[in-house]
Amino acid sequence: MSQIQLYDTTLRDGAQREGISFSVEDKLKIVRKLDNLGVHFIEGGWPGANPKDTEFFIQAKGLNLHNSRLAAFGSTRRPRIPAENDTVLKALLGAGVPVVTIVGKSWDYQVTQVLETTLEENLAMIMESVQFLKGQGLTVFFDAEHFFDGFKANTEYAKKCLEAASRSGADCIILCDTNGGTLPGEVTIAINTVKNVVSTPLGIHAHNDGELAVANTLAAVQAGATQVQGTVNGYGERCGNANLCSIIPALQLKLGINCLSTLQLAKLTEVARYVSEIGNLTPDPHLPYVGSSAFAHKAGYHVAAMMKAEKSYQHIDPGLVGNVKRVLISELSGKSNILYKAKERGLISNFNGNEAQKVLDQIKRLENQGYQYDGAEASFELLIHRTEPGYRPPFELVDFMVIVENRRRAPTSGEGDVLAEAMVKVRVGGEIVHTAAEGNGPVNALDSALRQALLRFYPLLHEVKLVDYKVRILEGTAGTASQVRVLIESSNGNVEWRTVGSSSNIIEASWYALVDSLEYCLWKGERSHELST
Q1: Averaged over 52-56, what is the pLDDT?
Q2: Which phi-psi region, left, alpha or beta, contains residue 409 (left: φ > 0; alpha: ψ -120 to 50)?
Q3: pTM across the whole model
Q4: CATH of the domain at 247
Q5: How far apart are CA 372 and CA 501, in angstroms?
Q6: CATH code, 453
Q7: Is the dihedral of CA 142, 23, 266, 497 positive or negative?
Q8: Is residue 449 part of a domain?
């Protein structure tokens, strides 16, 4: 099969996702990242449609791209307007890029009901627009909008639209599943039909409304399409576009079509997370190939097999796309999970199956009480550390009390204040220390009081900051008496770690997570390089 062209439309179609608004600088950063990845074409936007896209193409002239060519997007001329006088086509010329993509109707229903023109005029719009742009020396791609719906409704007219673009000199004709409702088998039938009608190379542009955008894209390639259009992470309007982060590795690793170099493919996870951060979106952990959970293993049965053969429960080596394998700890784990994590984190060199079983039994008991160790690996490490011969806790709780006093005259008055005070009594060695502290909430007060008690013995705790605090109600039928899980994220300025606590009392749950956080810091501080790398 000939080389497949990768065409990214994140900066236009992807930006149409609800919640995304790229600035000009954001778009320039993403272009540089995609160029480094090796994408062949990057669609920058619709010049003239808004000031931001117009400014982007002005600033993009200063980009020094090594692998990619910038494309500008627009539409065919308007009905009854000569191509040379059409403002959209003029704006495309003014963008100053070597490639333009124009969208035109290929569904008769859209022509008569949306464009409100005749079928003959629409064919003329396609032909004259492509001819005009080709006459300016540009590479011209034609997006046949709603093609698959048009093919099903009026096959002959849909084919005439493609023929009009082909005869006018289009460099590639992209078949668009604009409404996202086509099935892979239908894509195959349509492409097998039209590739015998036009000699121009074909492309595919799929939307994900039926969750088939990637499948439809791969079906199109197998049927003969040579250009694939999509977005990073599948971002796009409604349910999104075809996800290039799934398409690219499927082409290379499943179909043997090398679109990128091996080194470029290994940057894919980095690019996926970079674009999500630029878009101010939390990376989706469950995305195939690039998600943080894409190669995460929780079932003990799976992990036991993978310790013998990596391929047993992974369809590819995660390193090929720049991702990593992860083993999770939960009540679904087996001894293999515990042994794997102990070895991975360098915890106990002589940790054996019997000890792993004891830790596993404890995890199952604690998770039944509401604990969860998937996102609290510091608490998991402490479970193993506490099984070491001669283990002694750096401090032990004797007692604590928290008081919250409302000094406001009325809930909405804004006058007065809410006071939180905590008293803590802990045993350090043979000494009992009793301290009290105020805070802006009960957990903050508890944290402050505990630190006051410990700092004299452990100055290292000066460095620890609580950077995130999450509470989850585990089962809501008991109302305010429900079991809750508290997840605390802490940092010493160099690294971060997460600990967990659970109880029907939110203060007690917070205490358990807080104690784990400080003990973890002290334990790791004994080997200080572990908290500075």
Answers
A1: 94
A2: alpha
A3: 0.71
A4: 3.20.20.70
A5: 9
A6: 3.30.160
A7: negative
A8: yes
